[in-house]
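Residues pack. Consider this:
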Amino acid sequence: MPGENLSRDEAQERAALLSVDSYEVSLDLRSAVGETETEPAPRTFRSVTTLRFRCAEPGAASFADLIAPSVTAVTLNGKDLDPGEVFDGSRIRLEDLAADNELVVDAQCAYSRTGEGMHRFVDPEDGEVYLYTQYEPADSRRVFANFEQPDLKAPFRFEVLAPEGWVVWSNGVGELADGVWKFAETKPISTYITAFAAGPYHYVTDSYSRTFDDGRTLEIPLGAMCRKGLAPYFDADDVFLVTKQGLDFFHDHFDYPYPFGKYDQAFVPEYNLGAMENPGLVTFREEYIFRGKVTQASYEGRANVILHEMAHMWFGDLVTMEWWDDLWLKESFADFMGAFSLVGATRFKDGWITFANRRKAWAYRADQLPSTHPITADIRDLQDAKLNFDGITYAKGASVLKQLVAYVGQDAFLEGARRYFKRHAYGNTRLGDLLTVLEETSGRDMAAWSRSWLQTAGVNSLTPQVLLSAEGRVDELAIIQEAAESHPELRPHRVAVGLYRRSPEGAVERYARAEIDVDGPRTIVGELAGADAPDLVLVNDDDLTYCKIRFDEGSLATLRERLGEITDPLARALCWSALWNLTRDALMPARDFIDLVLRFAGRESDIGVLQMLHAWANSALTHYAAPDWRAEGGRLLAEGALRELRLAEPGSQHQLTWARFFANVTSSEADLQLLRDLWEGTATVDGLEVDQELRWAFLEPLAAHAVADESALAAELARDDTASGKRHQVRCLAARPSEAVKAQAWAAVVQSDSLSNALVEATIAGFGQPSQRELLAPYTAKYFDAIERLWAERSIQIAMDVVKGLFPSLQDSQETLDATDAWLAAHETAAPALRRLVLEARDDLARGLRGQACDVAAAG
């Protein structure tokens, strides 16, 4: 892996020297099907690249990127080079370059089982083979020779030989001629967003048409595909509906027609990401095709991802950052635009509630880790880039853009985007290029805003300070801004401050609001002086800025008694988020947070918020509650979940959500027997349909508590003998409470690389059961013994999954913290990206221990 790690300095040097005119890439994928002899060598395909480029300094040397088992031939400007001399496994050395150059590379590239490069999947249901590519940030070099950096854009021409009967898709429109799939030349794009999908995919078509004010008409062919085994569940009509709504929205607001011709969307198996914005061929994880009943939150989540990727067609694909330092120029904008268009164009009008409750929770966690970084990050190399697809780049960046819209105004923001697209189409940009257009359209000092928001790390907390007059009115209301010692920047915030009180009917409602600029450590909210005394002061009402909300004592007392009576769902979601932050910061005992969930979650109308509360309650019990209270807390959560399950409207999404939560937290013999009875069909809950996905959800806790054995899991797989069923079975098998089972799971992931990425993920998910802490204790030392070797030997995606997923977080003791510190002290020269992952896991562990101490103190 280290030899594959391109540095920023190398990329800048190469970009100054070279410019690319075109790529012609020919792939022979016929080897994807058929049997091969069992041998250590990977299954390969032929890849021939013709790369034409110019060199600013004739006679200079550079290199091309390629990760391949072997290279058959390399020709530079008509001269044959010895592959053994110029190719080292990840780079092709190029010397004595001319002003105009032609490089031809004939290589044997490997099919992937890790979701990187050309991934090959064999469907266990019918034996069919499916291929797709995933490249970001730098895995197209696993498929064809290239200059793998975002600022060396070029047009691409692809052609593919495929097995008979297959269809092949790429970025451009393709056609089959004389047995070869040939694709229209692309616009100039970066290597990491080129793409292929090939195989017997189930493919559905539609079309989009738009007539603009000047009379021009744009026709976009639409396609959507999935494995044949998922076709019965594929609701392509809804995918196309959201797609068309998004295209209308972005055409309305961006004033730049979709520039990449067709728009295919492929839902593919064993995908590492949520989705990827390849122009003309967007790829998604196939879990967005729902095999069973799901809540509206799942459909909203899918729509958000569809729109996020669509926003990338402009932010990222049309205009691309020069280097990964400015990754936010695409990901932050796409994350913001996903929610912005979701609310503005689709049926999901409560998208900002989900954003406030779910996306920002991700950002708050990431921004308090030791690895937090400015939104415009310092990305030294590709390993840094891989790890910076994180909560800062996505969710904090999107939150800051929401703050920017409040700061400069929506019209100025969108006009800035329009100028940005037109000025830099098919080019590459840096931070300053965007700030320039925003200064033009808003008249604001964007440099000062950027210094505070984009170039510093950390999250501020805003706390109300209320002084009342003798008459019971607000005499003075101030906002206190604080920052962590490690990141002391106090930022300018555009915030709304809401005053809430209980009505005679019992509802907690807002009766006064002021929108102000908060700057510095203390800001007076003069507009609210003289208002009636509030029961609750909500700083950052309407969620305009990015901050941690705190409460004064009176407001916190109101929430403890009246949280469920807040009528506005966004205000309620913001309060829940703030209470969870208090719990994570060891300012609220975990048992108090769990008590609030038990008392008020049953009244939560927003299904996405309810699902988040369930996840937080589970995390509070697992990581933040006092160890000797966990059994009691688990019993209370299971009782509460079962109560709400029985009270929920039959057949409703709330009923389904409580059923899944009950399965997650149940542990008593009686509850497990009920769960088994529901799985077997000998017990029912009125209106609850126990479909195949819910059966697997019930089976994992049954397996983890030794109620369902290996034979039961085998029988369930026979009932659901599909790729999805296999993943579920592998997870459940690893969840069983046995020393032999844990040893087998550990060996499968750590000592072998035979599992695909999806089965590695499933094994890790089953391995770490909170009820099996003692059983997992021996693996702490084994973890620290293994991770440096794993980082060196595995692909970065698998290495990241293992290092994060198998960290001994359930061994939450000072001894584990000491072991982590000892490893870090002894491995100061380990890969920075590896150290970052361990440091992040250490921080989570230390935070959990502080939370446990808070919970112990609360118990007296």
